Amino acid sequence: MNTEYPAATRLLIEEVLTIGSVEDPRIEQRLREYYLDSTMQVLLEDVHDEYADLNAEETEISSVFEQVKDADPSFRIPFMYTQISGLNQSIVVGDSLLGISLDKYLGRDYPLYRKYYHDYQRRVMDRSWLVSDALFYYLSHEYPLPDGKVHTLLDYISDYGKIHWVIAHCRNISLEQEAGFEEERVLWYKDNETNVWNWLMGHGALTSADLTMIRLFMEPRGTTPYIGKDSPDQIGLWLGLQIIDHYMKSHPRVTIGELLRENDYGKILRESGYHPSANKK
Questions:
Q1: Which single residue of 28, 119, 127, 272 could bond 247 by disulfide (Cβ 3.0 to 4.6 Å)?
Q2: What are phi and psi of 192, to 5 degrees?
Q3: Is-contact 125 110, C-beta < 8 A?
Q4: Strand bridging mode 91-94 / 97-101
Q5: Domain-terminating residue out of 142, 167, 191
Q6: How does pLDDT run across 101-128, given as a tens digit for each residue?
Q7: Does residue 147 form part of some domain?
Q8: Are residues 138 and 168 in the same domain?
């Protein structure tokens, strides 16, 4: 298949749309048929209307990448492109590639979203999330948790917190704004921070590598089991942001490049001085 952007096209066809191989002589016909579907035509039109101008988002994403590059010269600024994914992956990351699926950011009340997604899923399917998602997934790809070891809940909450902390710092916005935490959730987190931390410590959850436990505290969902039916989700991300924020405030000479390369989260927790019970005295 002839294309000006072969790597991005391969990602789209083989890993996002999963309609075949770019080597298949019939792939152009398959791709054409895919996008001629009536639902895809609606998505194409609505994306065209919503995203006639992406200059603001492109400028903000590029600014963060340039700041990271200044802090870590080895960082690879990606080639960025947009696509229509057919409501598949929101963000696609490859080798120095960053693809943004605009059809996943048409607004939480977009009719197709209301038909297929839960409310907690739809809240991030808005244009206001595009910049944060693009930055988070690419930086997570470039600064991953190390291979060859079992990762715990502490690793995940700290790693997510680290990436979001860096993005907030570079964008010059609050941690709450970067994470998309509305005021009601922030109030709950602050009021219950000590109780949640004590529960995690008392049940050995921070050192747990159980993926079910990790997902319960990290992923968007209705509530967080174990904590209470009125609890919000993503409690782990909130705690991770607090740990990293305490660490960076107590280590003002640490650069964002050094922070991004640091994966010893036990050390970060110890040196952060973060302990909700003590912090609230």
A1: 272
A2: -115, 10
A3: yes
A4: antiparallel
A5: 142
A6: 999 999 999 999 999 999 999 999 999 9
A7: no
A8: no
